[in-house]
Amino acid sequence: MKRFLLAITLSMVCFMANAQTPEEAEKINKWIDTYQQLNEAKDWQGMITKAGLCKQEIPTWDYVYYYEGIANYNLKDFDKAIMNLSIFIDKDQSEAGAYLLRGHSFSEKKDVANAIKDYDKYLASNPKDMSTMLAKANAYLNANDLNGYAKELGNVLKEDPNNAKLLENRASAYANLNNWQGAIEDYTKLISLDANNAEYYNNRAYANYVLKTPETYKLAITDYNKVVELGKADATVFTALTALNSALKDYKEEIKAWDKLVELQPENMDNVYRRGAAKYNAADYKGAIADFDIVIKDNPKHINALKRRATSKTRAGDKVGAQADGKLIRELEATGK
After folding, report:
1. Contact, 305 vs 296, CB < 8 A?
2. Which residue in 81, 90, 269, 282 could disulfide with 105, CB within 3.0 to 4.6 Å?
3. Is pTM, for the whole model, over 0.90?
């Protein structure tokens, strides 16, 4: 509403300057007062109802179309808002607010190209108006143009570099564009603003994870461990830690992550089985056998657990145990069960 009241105040000065006769000036003054009151009362239907009479009394007064456009917009009749604002703009290009409001109307209609043209017209006169810069960014978003959206958010962030919400939105856009480095930079900035926000570490960890290099894996592990430290880790975080540490062959840390998963999901025997495999890779054959024992007790026909337990027993020097498992494996394979 403040924007509309400002437009009316500006218009008043303009109308008085353009009045041709004292009589015309008096009529304009009357209608300015009328529209000011209707505007302050948010009586949008009243503004539209008065438009016909206003046009009869002062047919050369172009601003009546501007006010009618304001009312149409607030009543969500965007087609009529565009029509009336366009009539006004065709007659008078000096009122930047008309471009702004028509830009909003075009944006509501998903007419992104025309919305952006009008926003640019407005911003040429008001280059630091952040709300309009954001409206322009959202117009790109409505068109699923994430590159344009991220670029426009960047322009706003030049004016407000510590705006966490805008940084979050741009980081999300970058992620959807697979611009992981851009996302990492934004989350790094966000972490500098809020060092205890586990979501920022989690998202930056994922961005580093998908870059799939030893260096980014290490960075991802550091961030996931920070999520753990902050007490916000869930099964997804520990699952990522198992995969990352396995890729780096840090089986000790992988086993720690599996321990947490087993604790969180005690009924999930696959976690126990995979922990046993990690223990085997770490040359902890007794520990591996203990995990495979749990899996086989739950499912005596788990042939992969039997095979890994047999191999673990061989490595641990338990040849008799390995042979016994080998016999079970052959029986299962023979029956096909």
Report:
1. yes
2. 81
3. no
